[in-house]
Write a structure and sequence with these properties.
Rossmann fold, 7-stranded mixed beta sheet, 6-stranded parallel beta sheet, 11 helices, about 25% strand, binds nicotinamide-adenine-dinucleotide, binds zinc ion, metal-binding, zinc, heme binding, S-(Hydroxymethyl)mycothiol dehydrogenase, zinc ion binding
Length: about 350
């Protein structure tokens, strides 16, 4: 029997989000219904609400979640009812040209549920990143459920998007390792996870850049060895002077704006790597002298989901958390209810919140 539960939707561009009744079908072949325990509020949810991703309203928001499998459809063998899982938006297909080349982290045909969740009048919803988890129960492809060791859902659920994206941007995409220097521009949940990842990987110079002193204080906790407030100090000059005049080996851009991308481009060392993990809206453009792109060498990369493989990376990061080597608790600024998502979007702009986490 389809179930009717409460969830948070964005009905039209820029309008406040609403808590409404949503119909969740029984899981079909290859699908699972998951009882959501927690879901973090990610900046990408706000991008959806503002029309910055696409125009497929109404959206069922939320995508950074942990919960427990309630029911599975035919043919599902990897997870079973009762399993504690983190939801992922990279259920790899194993068959596309990326998977065939042994690079499933770039899978071009990731799985989502085939059935649709709907409003009570039958209107189909577009779940954010194919998940939709500001809701009591959600329907996903079974491959979107990654089984992990039992742990606080509010903390480890953040691995489902922003924290994994940031950690992986530094470690997987940027390849930061022992003795490297890294600068991270934008120290929200994503940027601070990049900083934490760089520390775990052994980077020795970790420069945090933000326009908020509160965020920079938090960055020190995650492992920043230096901080730069770019509203008062030129970040390119500062990063160069903190790296012997050279620039950082890797610069992670975790804002998604042209000016911060340009800072990242010029703040890296010759042959260094820029990693764009911030999501730009479609109107944003950068203009760079082509001679500088050529002459500075190195690599300009973008990082979707930190180039992660959920089945490889989520359990490993939960282990690091449980061993006290990766402080996921410190990303959880507040625990809120389903009705508080709009207020959480406001707080995202004020500079003091890393993650508001909806607890169901
Ligand atoms: N690539 C991916 O897979 C992926 C995954 C999750 C989120 N994201 C994106 O990453 C970005 C960051 O997400 P978040 O959840 O951490 O957002 P957030 O709002 O929590 O953090 C953004 C941070 O950037 C800072 N900032 C804003 N303008 C700045 C500027 N001009 N210079 C320096 N710092 C500035 C803010 O003070 C804030 O600390 C967003 O664009 C989000 O959509 C990407
Ligand atoms: Zn694939
Ligand atoms: Zn996200």
């Amino acid at each position: 029997m389809p179930q009717t539960v409460k969830g948070v939707i964005s009905r039209s561009k820029g309008a406040d989000v609403e808590v409404v009744d949503i119909v969740v079908p029984d899981p079909g072949p290859g699908e699972a219904v998951v009882r959501i325990e927690t879901c973090g509020v990610c900046h990408t949810d706000l991008h959806y609400r503002e029309g910055g991703i696409n125009d497929d309203y109404p959206f069922l928001l939320g995508h950074e979640a942990a919960g427990r499998v309630e029911a599975v459809g035919d043919g599902v063998t990897d997870v079973a009812p009762g399993d504690f899982v983190i939801l992922n938006w990279r259920a790899v297909c194993g068959q596309c040209r990326a998977c065939a080349k042994g690079k499933p982290q770039y899978c071009f045909n990731t799985h989502n549920a085939t059935q649709k969740m709907t409003l009570t009048d039958g209107t189909e919803l577009s779940p954010a990143l194919g998940i939709g988890a500001f809701i009591e129960k959600t329907l996903v492809a079974a491959g979107q459920c990654t089984k992990v060791p039992e742990a606080d859902a509010a903390a480890v659920g953040l691995l489902g998007c922003g924290v994994m994206a940031g950690f992986g941007a530094a470690v997987n995409t940027g390849g930061v390792g022992r003795g490297d220097s890294i600068a991270v521009i934008g120290c929200g949940g994503v940027g601070n996870a990049a900083i934490a990842g760089a520390r775990v990987a052994g980077a020795t110079t970790i420069i945090a850049v933000d326009v908020s002193d509160a965020k920079l204080e938090q960055a020190k906790h995650f492992g920043a060895t230096h901080t730069v407030n770019s509203s008062t100090t030129d970040p390119v000059e500062a990063i160069r002077s903190l790296t012997g005049g050279n620039g950082a080996d890797v610069v992670v851009e975790a804002v998604g704006r042209p000016e911060t991308y340009e800072q990242a481009f010029y703040a890296r060392d010759l042959a260094g790597t820029v990693v764009l993990v911030g999501v730009p809206t479609p109107d944003k453009k950068v203009t760079l002298p082509m001679i500088d792109i050529f002459g500075r060498g190195g690599a300009l990369k973008s990082s979707w989901y930190g180039d992660c493989l959920p089945s490889r990376d989520f359990p490993m990061l939960v282990d690091l958390y449980k061993q006290g080597r990766f402080d996921l608790d410190a990303f959880v600024t507040e625990r809120i209810g389903l009705g508080d998502v709009e207020a959480a979007f406001d707080k995202m702009q004020t500079g003091n919140v890393l993650r508001s986490v909806v607890v169901l």
